[in-house]
Automatic annotation (TrEMBL), chain A:
Its main location: membrane. It is a multi-pass membrane protein. GO terms for cellular component: plasma membrane. It is found in: Cell membrane. This is ABC transporter ATP-binding protein. The chain crosses the membrane at residues 21-44, 312-335, 355-381, 401-422. One of its GO terms (molecular function) is ATP binding. Residues 20-269 form the MacB-like periplasmic core domain. It comes from Dyella thiooxydans. It comes from the Bacteria. Pfam families: FtsX (PF02687), MacB_PCD (PF12704).
TrEMBL record, chain B:
It is a multi-pass membrane protein. It is found in: Cell membrane. Keywords: Cell membrane, Membrane, Transmembrane, Transmembrane helix. It holds the Pfam family MacB_PCD. This is Uncharacterized protein. Residues 54-246 form the MacB-like periplasmic core domain. InterPro entries: ABC3_permease_C, MacB_PCD, Macrolide_Exporter_MacB.
Length: 436, 404
């Protein structure tokens, strides 16, 4: 029966090629536009560390005074952590792993004469950064807690920078001059660049930036290396420094493996805040302390720009208009065949049969529209990749998006075919037969 | 032309009519809002920088020892000045559409109580306002003695130029000349007003106006060095910049050239608004696609109706209707449908605008967008229906005598 309906549908579609073409084009355009924007949103909100993200959390303290007024559009200072708080949490060691970190850009003077001096951006971090985030190493490894404590001048390079500086020869053991200070290379990471760079603060381009070096936070503090990212100070008094209790600039991440650990850590944060409040440092309720999971943190940071949101709505609205169009066209097409329907009904076809027959015809349009839509979406993504925005380069379709496109197209066209098919199967056979 | 029979005919195709009306309503709403957003972006891109953009370039150096800054500046100014075509080289902290160099919250009183916003500050060495091509509208340009050494971020007390817009904002209705404002310990006294000088990093959101800028005359030193304004004839500028960037390696081997920011002002401007022009282009695409699909829908449905009514048209022709009558019938029918759609679409346009205002901080949709949207859709509808209607008008009266 299905094969017969398929045959009927094909015949019917071939009978009016212009109308069929219009419908396929409409579905294709709508699906193409929607899938372009859905894909962009998909890559932007994708898990930056699949398999590991569920165990990563960022604690959030609220050290701001009660009368702190935040200017509209300026970042929330409580999104970052102060030096004393970060050190206290690090020392307490209540999580499975924990690390404090901050971004920095340093002048690098390559030893090779053919390379110009350049500025490179990287991260100052504490030792557990590497095992906590599961950074893969090509050679060597990260540093130890002892290196943090003694302030060893060691550095881990990203593979891209290592290749640039040392070519194919082994970078481990070599010396790199960063910010007028010599560092010994102890590790080279394998290709690793989470998108977005979730642990960086919000001021950077989180979709295009990558860390090219990692060095101990204690060394950066000792050398007074410049810190990039947002540094917010509050309150009166002498001008704040990086170690002040009223200036936030550090990011802090912890690894917690079980729900019990998460609950315990949350309680620890509240207790810590209560203690700080008792000491007179914090003014706000201790329950303001929060613990964000990685994905929850990304949602809190709201990285997706308004433009992308808006374009998605435009594209979905466009798909809706295309569907309305198809409903009207299918309605016209199906009702025109009232005579045919009547004959089939008179010969014993049930309403259900008619409904299925027209449903298949709509689905067929959907499949054709989906294939066209795939092509249009690829074109759309290509045009997005030409754009100047930092997320643009990521706009690529993966397999799930590919299948999603076809499914969405078929669903949309079947949804559009629902009303026409229903109307068609309600045709009164007797009336039509007499009229014809 | 009688409208009543058309309306009763449409009643027989209620569902299809409602669908097309909805489609036109949506198209109308999106058309008005998208056009408005395009206009919004384009007007942002029209911002007047107030400087001779086509003649200006910017060079930024980093990584040198601040102790050698005076020596570096002297070498760079002499070296770049020797390139043929270069009219002048000045030390400046940034240029319009360049990197954000300095912005400070200012107050009208020394105690810091009367907060008046966060303008951007340009620092420039002697001769910079003239090299930029700033247009003075009141007061006078800084004299040689107004250029003072920088202590911290600015000279402790300086005689500055401000824009007309900032003057109006700070002292509405009064002459700004001789007036003073403060930022922390720094004191600024207005000696001149310029027509325009745009901020370095224009940001539509937030509290900062696009023309809230202050020009502070300053002498280069350890806290103000390494960034240069190059002036050349517009036709020489591109070549001059290429040669200047190449020359830096020999003039200042101890410094690192910031390749991103060292370029001509026109390039900086294009780059600065690249996202806006991409968005405007995308919106034009959406409008074109939407109108195209709407037109396709009208063509499809009108063709169907014409085919369905061949016999009826034949009868009307047989009893005396002219081709013009038939043509007008379908055109009037389309006009009515589109009119319903437009009426609904205007309401929807305002709903969408309200949502956009809430979530994307867009201003109110001006009323005059609505009649233009309506005209566009009426025109589109008439064009789309023309083909099927012409086909209808060519139905011969003899059809009436045939059985279907």
């Amino acid at each position: 029966m299905l094969a017969y309906y398929l045959d009927l549908a094909l015949r019917s579609l071939r009978r009016s090629p212009v109308l069929t073409g219009l419908m396929v084009l409409a579905i294709g355009l709508g699906i193409g536009a929607s899938m372009t924007m859905i894909t962009v949103l998909h890559v932007m909100t994708d898990d930056p560390l699949p398999g590991r993200s569920a165990r990563l959390y960022t604690p959030h303290l609220d050290p701001l005074p009660l009368d702190y007024k935040r200017h509209e559009g300026s970042p929330d200072p409580a999104d970052d952590m102060t030096w004393p708080d970060a050190m206290a949490l690090l020392k307490a060691h209540r999580a499975v792993r924990q690390a404090a970190m901050s971004g920095g850009s340093l002048l690098l003077r390559p030893a090779r004469a053919d390379l110009h001096p350049l500025y490179v951006s990287g991260r100052y971090a504490t030792a557990e950064f590497f095992p906590m985030f599961g950074v893969p190493f090509e050679r060597g490894g990260g540093w130890s807690a002892a290196d943090d404590a003694t302030g060893s001048s060691v550095v881990v390079l990203a593979d891209a920078l290592a290749r640039k500086l040392f070519g194919t020869s082994d970078a481990v053991g070599q010396t790199v001059r960063l910010g007028e200070h010599d560092f010994r290379v102890i590790g080279v990471t394998a290709d690793w660049a989470p998108k977005p760079l979730f642990y960086a603060d919000q001021t950077g381009n989180q979709y295009s930036d990558a860390d090219l070096f990692f060095l101990p936070l204690s060394v950066a503090m000792g050398q007074k290396f410049p810190v990039s990212g947002n540094q917010s100070a509050w309150g009166k008094g002498e001008s704040p420094s990086l170690t002040s209790a009223n200036m936030s600039w550090l990011q802090f991440w912890v690894q917690l493996d079980t729900p019990a650990q998460v609950a315990a850590y949350r309680q620890y944060l509240v207790d810590y805040s209560a203690q700080q409040k008792a000491l007179g440092r914090f003014q706000r309720p201790p329950t303001n302390a929060k613990l964000y999971g990685l994905m929850g943190w990304l949602a809190h940071e709201n990285l997706v720009p308004g433009d992308v949101d808006l374009q998605l709505w435009l594209a979905l609205g466009f798909l809706f208009v295309c569907m309305l169009n198809i409903v009207a066209l299918l309605l016209a097409k199906f009702l025109r065949r009232s005579g045919e329907i009547s004959v089939r009904r008179a010969l014993g076809a049930r309403r259900r049969d008619i409904f299925v027959q027209f449903g298949i015809e709509s689905a067929l349009i959907g499949v054709a529209g989906g294939v066209l839509g795939l092509g249009i979406a690829q074109l759309g993504l290509w045009s997005i990749r030409q754009r100047p925005d930092d997320y643009a380069r990521l706009a690529q379709m993966d397999l799930s998006m590919l299948l999603g496109t076809v499914v969405l197209a078929v669903l949309a066209s079947m949804l559009a075919g629902l009303l026409p098919a229903w109307r068609a199967c309600r045709v009164q056979p007797a009336l039509q037969l007499k009229g014809g | 032309m009688q409208i009543r029979p058309i309306l009763s005919a449409l009643k027989k195709h209620r569902v299809a009519t409602v669908l097309i009306v909805m489609e036109i309503a949506l198209a109308c709403a999106v058309l008005c809002n998208a056009c408005f957003m395009i206009a919004d972006r384009l007007s942002a891109m029209q911002i007047k920088s107030g400087v001779d953009e086509a003649s200006l370039g910017f060079i930024a150096l980093q990584g040198y020892d601040p102790k050698n800054s005076n020596d570096l500046d002297a070498r760079v100014i002499a070296g770049l000045g020797a390139i043929s075509g270069v009219e002048s080289v000045h030390v400046i902290n940034s240029v319009p559409f360049g990197m954000q160099a300095a912005n400070v919250g200012i107050t009208l009183d020394q105690a810091g109580k009367e907060f008046r916003g966060v303008p951007e500050i340009y620092l420039g060495s002697p001769g910079t306002p003239q090299a930029l091509g700033l247009q003075l509208v009141a007061g006078h340009m800084p004299a040689n003695e107004d250029y003072q050494p920088v202590q911290g971020y600015f000279p402790p007390s300086s005689n500055v130029l401000i824009t007309r817009t900032l003057a109006k904002h700070l002292w509405p209705g009064e002459s700004p000349l001789g007036k003073e404002f403060w930022s922390d310990k720094y004191q600024f006294r207005v000696i001149g007003v310029v027509a325009h000088l745009s901020v370095q990093q224009y940001d539509e959101e937030g509290e900062r106006g696009a023309q809230w800028t202050v020009f502070v005359p300053a002498l280069p030193g350890p806290n103000f060095s390494g960034t240069y304004l190059i002036r050349a004839k517009p036709e020489d500028l591109d070549r001059v910049m290429v040669e200047a960037k190449a020359a830096i390696a020999t003039i200042a081997p101890d410094a690192v050239l910031d390749r991103e920011d060292s370029t001509t002002v026109p390039v900086l401007r294009t780059r600065f608004f690249a996202a806006d022009s991409a968005m405007a282009g995308m919106l034009v695409g959406v409008i074109a696609a939407l109108l195209g699909v709407t037109a396709l829908g009208i063509v499809g449905l009108a063709s169907f109706w014409v085919a369905q009514r061949r016999r009826q048209i034949g009868i009307r022709r047989a009893i005396g209707a002219t081709r013009g009558d038939i043509l007008r019938y379908f055109q009037t029918e389309n006009f009515l449908i589109v009119s319903f759609g437009i009426a609904l679409g205007m309401l929807l346009a305002y709903v969408i605008n309200a949502v956009l205002m809430k979530f994307y901080e867009l201003p109110h949709l001006p009323l005059y967008y609505l009649p233009f949207g309506a005209l566009a859709l009426w025109g589109l509808g008439q064009l789309a229906v023309l083909g099927p209607a012409l086909r209808a008008s060519h139905v011969p009266p003899v059809v009436a005598t045939r059985s279907v």
